[in-house]
Amino acid sequence: MMTDIMADSLTRIRNAAQRRLDVTTLLHSKMVEATITILVEKGYLESYTVKEDGNKKTIDVVLKYGDNEKSVINEIKKISKPGRRIHRGKDEIKTFKNGYGTLVVSTSQGVLANDEAYKRGIGGEVICSIW
After folding, report:
1. Which of 8, 25, 49, 112 is most deeply packed, by most CB within 10 A?
2. Strand blocks (E) in the chain
């Protein structure tokens, strides 16, 4: 039984990027779908589609590669874990990697990227970082 579906999804993306796969399949949850949506908007992933097979849902993610056939994702890491939740205020999530990276934050207004959370003036639980 899997306890952290978000960590599993990030690991699947990381492994697929290292193997230079075009598509990888993730298990579906609202948190995973919201995070993938942010990664597509920020340009780290090409696109995604939600597939429903009976009562099971999966997410097919199309990875993005640069001109030199290298993945645009340098590092993707889970920050907040089931045993240790990491919360940050709005001032602590202003920038990540001097603006080259993105933090995905779970806030009271939904799952947001760090720049959007800072604009709205809210903090929250830091789910993952990517650059």
Report:
1. 112
2. 23-27, 45-53, 56-63, 76-78, 87-88, 102-107, 110-113, 124-130
Q: What is the pLDDT along the chain (131 residues), one digit of tens a residue?
A: 678 999 999 999 999 999 999 999 999 999 999 999 999 999 999 999 999 998 999 999 999 999 888 999 999 999 999 999 999 998 898 888 887 899 999 999 999 999 999 999 999 999 999 99
For 10, counting Cβ atoms within 10 Å of its Cβ (0-12 exposed, 13-18 middle, 19+ buried), the class is buried
* pTM assigned to the model: 0.92
The domains of the chain, with CATH numbers, are 5-130 (3.30.1490.10)
Residue with tokens 């429903």: 52
At position 31, the amino acid (one-letter code) is: M
